[in-house]
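User: Design a sequence. Structure:
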């Protein structure tokens, strides 16, 4: 096994790599779709590669999120996946550690939505304690089903200024809002 990670901006991914990443993501999730793929574009992709084949992926994209009464540009993590045959080998942890560094270097906080809390908590992520919302153009809509899934990674830039018990809201988007 000779797995290495690389970072690439979305516009640096050639057609072949995009195709292989899409295949990895579609195989990893029952509900992955074109909207989810679009959510992962526009930022930095961390790709674990073994013999030229992507076996792990995470993307960090800039996303403005309301935390309390303040809008913050966060590093939002999208499309975290590891090839099914390669799970349990540390690939997901390696990809997420590197995603954490991207967040630390460029954002005050990272945010993601998951139901796999233990995996992310091992890497320093914390569960969001406040209520979740979606701004959908007609106002703010409460999303209580998302409350338990939102997690944050505080970077050195945050300086303790992020209140994990504050409300948190994202703008509505096609596909999953969170």
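Assistant: Done.
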């Amino acid at each position: 096994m000779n797995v290495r990670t690389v970072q690439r901006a979305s516009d640096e991914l050639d057609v072949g790599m995009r195709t292989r990443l899409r295949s990895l993501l579609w195989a990893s999730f029952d509900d992955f779709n074109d909207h989810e793929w679009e959510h992962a574009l526009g930022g930095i992709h961390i790709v674990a590669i073994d013999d030229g084949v992507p076996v792990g992926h995470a993307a960090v994209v800039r996303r403005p999120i309301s935390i309390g009464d303040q809008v913050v540009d966060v590093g939002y993590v999208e499309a975290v996946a590891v090839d099914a045959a390669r799970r349990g080998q540390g690939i997901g942890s390696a990809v997420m550690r590197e995603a954490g560094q991207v967040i630390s270097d460029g954002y005050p906080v990272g945010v993601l939505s998951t139901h796999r809390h233990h995996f992310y908590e091992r890497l320093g992520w914390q569960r969001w304690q406040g209520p979740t919302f979606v701004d959908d153009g007609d106002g703010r809509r409460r999303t209580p089903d998302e409350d338990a899934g939102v997690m944050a990674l505080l970077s050195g830039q945050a300086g303790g200024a992020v209140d994990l018990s504050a409300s948190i809201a994202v703008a509505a988007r096609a596909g999953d809002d969170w």
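The radius of gyration is 16 Å. The mean pLDDT is 93.
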